[in-house]
Amino acid sequence: xxxxxxxxxxxxxxxxxxxxxxxxxxxxxxxxxxxxxxxxxxxxxxxxxxxxxxxxxxxxxxxxxxxxxxxxxxxxxxxxxxxxxxxxxxxxxxxxxxxxxxxxxxxxxxxxxxxxxxxxxxxxxxxxxxxxxxxxxxxxxxxxxxxxxxxxxxxxxxxxxxxxxxxxxxxxxxxxxxxxxxxxxxxxxxxxxxxxxxxxxxxxxxxxxxxxxxxxxxxxxxxxxxxxxxxxxxxxxxxxxxxxxxxxxxxxxxxxxxxxxxxxxxxxxxxxxxxxxxxxxxxxxxxxxxxxxxxxxxxxxxxxxxxxxxxxxxxxxxxxxxxxxxxxxxxxxxxxx
Amino acid sequence: xxxxxxxxxxxxxxxxxxxxxxxxxxxxxxxxxxxxxxxxxxxxxxxxxxxxxxxxxxxxxxxxxxxxxxxxxxxxxxxxxxxxxxxxxxxxxxxxxxxxxxxxxxxxxxxxxxxxxxxxxxxxxxxxxxxxxxxxxxxxxxxxxxxxxxxxxxxxxxxxxxxxxxxxxxxxxxxxxxxxxxxxxxxxxxxxxxxxxxxxxxxxxxxxxxxxxxxxxxxxxxxxxxxxxxxxxxxxxxxxxxxxxxxxxxxxxxxxxxxxxxxxxxxxxxxxxxxxxxxxxxxxxxxxxxxxxxxxxxxxxxxxxxxxxxxxxxxxxxxxxxxxxxxxxxxxxxxxx
Lengths: 337, 337
Prior knowledge:
The structure is a homodimer. Chain A is of the alpha/beta class. In chain A, helix 4 (132-143) crosses helix 10 and helix 6 crosses helix 8. The first copy, chain A, is 35% helix and 20% strand. Chain A is globular, with a radius of gyration of 21 Å. In chain A, the strands form three sheets. Chain A has a five-stranded mixed beta sheet, with helices on both faces. In chain A, strands 11-10-9-12-13 form a five-stranded mixed beta sheet, with helices on both faces. At the A-B interface, strand 10 and helix 8 of A face strand 10 and helix 8 of B.
C-alpha cells in the first residue's frame, strides 16, 4: 500500500505575478512561491516563461523537505479553456510587438497550449486549467462553504466580475468551455461602456472599477459635501470608498447600496434559471461585509420570483481570507479525481 | 433473453385535458388516449382523477394488441417537482372551494403526491414527473435535434414562456427542482405586469398573450391603418397576428420584430452564463418560422459578448410537428435509464 503523502500544485496566473503552492486534499499548503508574469509580457517571452515557471516549481518541490507523490497540477488563469487546456487571447500577457502586428500576426491567433507546454516538464502528471473564477468556485466546493452542495453560484467581485456555476454537482463549462461570464449580463441596456465593447454589463457597475464609476456619478447627482470630492478619478479606489462608508459618508454608503442593487437584480434573474442552494460572494468588494451583502440580499429578495423567495442563501466565501487563488487552482485536481 | 417490446407511458397533464400514449425508445407512439382534466377541477376531485386516469391508461394497455413490458411512466405537468414526485400549488387544477378556504385551508398546502398516488395503480413501475417545459427539453434530447448534445437550451413559447437547460448532458433541476423559469427573467424593469405578480418578465412580452399585448401597444404608438384595429383585446390571438404579418401588415410584422428582440436580448444574457451549443425554439409562436426566428437571431447576435458571437445555433424544435408533449413526458423514462 502506497502511504506516501499526495500533493498537487495549485498555480494562480495573474497579470502581475504567477503564484503557486503545493496543497494536500484538505487544503493545507506545504510551501508557496511565485515568479513574475509581468517580466514575460511579450509574445516571444512565452517559451521562457514556461521554462522558468517549471524550474521554480521544481525548486519548490525540492524545498518541501519530505517525499511526496505529485498527483496533478491545477491552474487558474484568465481566458483559460478547460476543454482545450489552452489560454486563448489573454489581454495582459504574451502580447505581440508592434513589429509582429505590422508583419501580419493576428490577435486571434494568440492561442497558447499551456497544459501541453508545461506538461513537457512534468511527464505523466495530469494538468487541469480553467479561468480564475471557475477555480475559485471549485475551491469553494472542495475546501469551503459549498462542500456537499450540488447546485450553487460563486460570484467574484474583483477588478472584474467573475462567476462560476455548479449544477448537479458539476461545474458548468458550457459547450465551448467559456461559460460563467455573469459579469457580462446586461443590467442597464445602453448603460455604461464596458471593456468588452458593449454597454451596460454588470461588470461596469459591480466591479472595483464599477463602484468607483458609481462614486463619480453620485458626486454629480448628490449635493452632500464629502471628502470623496478631493480625489481624482485615478486616485480613488474601492477600498477608500469602504473606509468612508464605514465612517458614514452618505455618498460612499450610497455607492454600496447601488452596487448591491445591481447585483441583487441580476442574481434574482439567474436564480430563476439555475435555482441554486446558495450564492457565495468572494473578492475585494466582498470584504465590505454587510455594507455590500445586505443590499445584495435585499434587492435580490425584493425582485425574486415567488417560487424562490427566501430559499437561496447569500454567503461570504469561506476562502475569503485564505490563499483562495492557489487553493482554487489546486482543487481542480482533487475535483477531477 | 427477454425480447419483449419495451414501452413507456408519456402523460401530458394540461389544464383542459390529460393526454397519454405508449411510446417506444425511438419515439414511436403505439396508441394514444386522453381524459378531461377540467372535469376534475376541485380539490376533492383529485382522488377520482387519479383513479379514472389509471383506469383509462389500463384500457389503452389492453387495446395495444400485443404483449409488451411497461418499463416506466413519464409525466409532464405544470408545477411538477422532479425530486419530490409532486405537483405543488397548480394554478388551474384541484382548487379549494370557497367553503374550504373559509374553513381555513391554505393555498400553499395544495401539494399532491402525484407519482406516489398514481403508482398505487402501477406497482413496481418507476414514475418520473417534471414540468412541461423540462419534459419537452428531454424530448428534444432523446428524440429530437438535441440528440448527442451536452449543453443546450429549450425555449417553449406558448401561453407562457417555459424553458429547460441542459448542462454536461444533464437537465438542470436546481436545488429545489424548479430551475428553468426563464420566462420570469426581467427584460424591462418596471415594465408590463406579469401573472407572477412582478413587472417586466420575459413572459409578459414573448408569450402568446405577450405578443397580443405588444399588438395593442403598437396600435397606440403606430398610425398605420390595419385590420387589427377591428379586433377587441379578447378577440385577438397570436395566430391572427401571424396571418396578417404574412400578408404584410406593418403592425403585425412589427409585433414579431419586438417579440424577437426581447427574446434575443434575454438569450444573449443567458448564453454568457451557460454557453450552450444550441437553443431550440418550440411552441405556438415558433410556428411563425422566420418571422420570429430571424429577429431572435439578429438581436441575440447584435447583443452577444464577443466570446460567443456566431457560435450558438438557434433552431426550431424537431418535435414541433409531432406529439411533443407525450413524447417529452415519455423521454423522462428513457433518459433516467
